[in-house]
Design goal:
The structure is a homodimer. Chain A is α/β, with parallel strands linked by helices. Chain A has 14 helices and 12 strands. Chain A is elongated and about 90 Å long. Chain A binds a DNA duplex (30 and 30 nucleotides) through helix 2 and helix 4.
Chain lengths: ~350, ~350
DNA sequence: TTTTTTTACGCAATCGATGCCGATAACGAT
DNA sequence: ATCGTTATCGGCATCGATTGCGTAAAAAAA
């Protein structure tokens, strides 16, 4: 099987002790330049690489960080992971990714698996199902470094990275109002998720600001964040079968938006003529869709970067950290065709052509 | 900082030796049932977990496998990774993902990083840029377990998992012919990629079968697999500005397809009326797009599963493996609207409307 | 009672790398 | 000639867990 050269092999071959070889390789001044040269040349010739596992055992750290997200097959998270990676690899850290698939149980299992000392810290975005966070609390209480991003919890005091969900939702809703829509529904993820609460508040605030009464039946939460299509399908169908059907939807996530559009499509609903839609997304896909998707854009890559920098700062801190910060990044609404201005006449004409 | 309980702590607390504790926890018959009970209860109370790093050092294996792909923000690969994960975690393996972003250099760096003994084996899908595979050959020659999937090489003899790219491409092209298209272009990834060659051959075979002459200028390769938009944009523009403009495109990958559609959109080209398109994809997105994307579907999840099973078989094999297998999975063409039947009259009318 | 066997456990080496000491030799200083 | 200093290197313990071997005491056989 595969055997790599060790420091011991070099020592034996060169008639030195392992300590001398070790020091020679690290360029210690205690070693004569002749010996150093000999050792380094031999090491290069046989392509010596220090065994990272032995180093981990010795240094009591693995130089790897764990990422706990719901899914990587999601543009927001894969971009965030790219950001995480970009920082981590430069700082000499491996990245180990685990997916909860929006399941609380799998999240718990993954966290335990990662934390049983094979990673030095955790970057976490909670699953939609997660209501109890004991599995993180236990670790955090022991001093294990954790940074939350996007879907955070206020029950644990540590570094956090979020976007201004309130403002993003406010902007999205305001944009729909400006475009002439008044019956604006809100399709949201699980109600106890931090991002859901904040976005709901932003949505409500924009409505209030414009004198539009809040309508409870216009808000639909999906406990599983869109992972279960039937759940989402029911939510969307409930909305479109409402007596006073909404003329616009503010959808709070990529998966929700995409599935919502799928339901629209099979129901023969045209966007934006029948119902306009604004998403909350990181997807560059908005551009490729037909019609283009208006969306509140989140700086996913940057969130990953900032979270990783904070985590590494925690990991490498000499003394226990007690001062934590919450970094809030800004969203930006990108207007495309899915929320085109509501024009009664034009809408009517097009419908005739389409029908 | 975070310190976990070790076998030594248990030994000290209970007045035993570490060997006794170790054996008690593993249920050895050499330990009295009283002692066993005592040790196990203590371990449970303090939530003892064996240090995986120490185990790795002792057993000379890390129980982790490395994945080398171009991107995770790609439906095909994220699905494949889900398949990989589903097998790996059940067998007690961690999964470490690295992305080359279609860069040869980054692929080399990632492979070296992973292989310097922190992973027990590698699952690889080559980057588009990769022409030389010395970085894999070196490892493979030393007996390091590697399994290739999707984008493979025939220069290394090991387990491989692919789909029937030839037949997939053949089916896609035949489908376009059946739908009435005759001027079928082919948008492909880097020319030296295994999948590119096979798909090109399938495309050619279908043309020949139908008595359609092969037209060199109808085939466009993208060295960077669509990672560089300008490169792809040029390829697509070359095609649509051809004197004898194609009426259909067989596109060999998700990223190519999406970017191609983006170019179409900005050029005001309607699908399928102006140009039909068939993709090669794993994307469920085909359903969500407007019009729906006809695509050759690849069983990405299953590919990941099979590749992982083969890799673990390699890793856990007692003696050196010399018999290798190449698993070929089947594709399936999913017909949607982007390749709707070409109707001369209707097409003429619509073109006038569009123009 | 003596010998043999079994039970139940500890010692020490091992995995690879590091780092604190201690050892040795050369060399200058006194 | 003796001592102190410096340069250079080896010995050993360490990180956490496993395991072959040795051994004391208890149990069984003689």
């Amino acid at each position: 099987m595969y055997e790599a050269i060790t420091i011991k092999d070099i020592a034996k071959a060169l008639g030195l002790s392992t300590s001398t070889v070790s020091r020679a390789l690290r360029g210690s001044h205690e070693i004569s330049s002749d010996t150093k040269k000999m050792v380094i040349e031999y090491a290069e010739q046989f392509n010596y690489r220090p065994n990272p596992i032995a180093l981990s055992l010795k240094e009591r750290r693995s130089r790897s960080i764990g990422v706990v997200v719901c899914e990587i097959a999601n543009n927001f998270f894969s971009q965030a992971i790219n950001g995480i990676e970009s920082i981590a690899y430069n700082r000499g850290y491996h990245v180990i990714i685990s997916q909860s698939h929006e399941s609380y149980e799998r999240e718990v299992v993954n966290v335990e698996h990662l934390a049983s000392r094979s990673v030095d810290g955790l970057l976490v975005s909670l699953s939609t199902e997660t209501e109890h966070i004991e599995h993180f609390k236990n670790l955090h209480d022991k001093g294990f470094p954790i940074v939350f991003f996007d879907r955070i919890t206020d029950e644990i005091e540590t570094h956090k990275v979020v976007v201004d969900n309130y403002k993003g939702a406010y902007d999205a809703t305001q944009h729909l109002v400006d475009a002439g829509y008044k019956k604006i529904a809100h399709l949201a993820s699980s109600a106890h998720l931090s991002i859901s609460k904040e976005r709901l508040n932003g949505y409500k605030a924009a409505l209030a600001e414009n004198g539009i009464p809040f309508n409870e039946s216009y808000v639909k939460h999906c406990q599983h964040g869109g992972m279960i299509f039937t759940e989402l399908e029911k939510a969307v169908k409930d909305l479109i079968h409402l007596k006073d059907r909404p003329d616009a939807i503010f959808s709070a996530g990529d998966r929700l938006t995409l599935s919502c559009l799928a339901v629209f499509k099979s129901a023969g609903i045209k966007v934006p003529d029948d119902i306009a839609i604004v998403g909350f997304s990181n997807s560059t896909m908005g551009d490729l869709m037909n019609p283009g998707l208006t969306a509140v854009n989140q700086p996913a890559f940057e969130m990953g970067q900032v979270a990783t920098e904070l985590l590494i700062k925690l990991i490498e801190s000499k003394r226990a950290v007690t001062e934590f910060e919450t970094v809030v990044l800004h969203t930006e609404i990108i207007v495309r065709d899915s929320s085109a201005k509501k024009a009664e006449v034009k809408s009517g004409k097009e419908k005739k052509v389409a029908g």
